[in-house]
Amino acid sequence: MEHRRKAGRRAPTSGVAGLGAPALKAVAAVASPNAGALPNITAVIEGGGQIMVGTVAPIRDAAVAHDGKRTLAMLRRRPHEAIADLLARLDAAIGTAKATGTRVDEINTKGASHRYEI
């Protein structure tokens, strides 16, 4: 009896379509119910800036907005404050910073022995 060659194992398919893969059908975008709820954060991101929320070592629970040229706001999360509330405060702080031209800074307090630049 002849030996048959077993079929080789196939490489697992990737979750990312390759260059030769057919295009996916377009799906209509559905507007979020909160679309436009944070207009200043949206403007910073769409303008090439960035928003950081979380640990910005050594500061825990921070929210920072940077427009690509300068830091607009540096906030500390209050005890038991929801992330949504922190983002709302960050959005308001960005608006204040743009209106007044000064940074809103809750990280560098007058009594602090260290100053942090982000």
Polypeptide structure, described:
The chain has a four-stranded mixed beta sheet. A hairpin with a 2-residue loop joins β1 (50-56) and β2 (59-66). The protein is 22% helix and 19% strand. It has a domain at 39-104. The chain has 118 residues and is α+β, with helices and mostly antiparallel strands. The protein has two helices and four strands. The chain starts with 38 loop residues before the first helix and ends in a 13-residue tail after the last strand.
Supply Rg: 24 Å
Largest sheet: 4 strands, mixed
Alpha carbon gap, first and last residue: 74 Å
Order of helices and strands: HEEEHE
Short description:
This protein is α+β, with helices and mostly antiparallel strands and 118 residues long.
Layout of helices and strands:
Blueprint: H1 39-46, E1 50-56, E2 59-66, E3 71-76, H2 83-100, E4 104-105
Parallel strand pairs: 3-4
Antiparallel strand pairs: 1-2, 2-3
Q: What are the salient characteristics of this protein?
A:
118 residues, alpha+beta, 4 strands
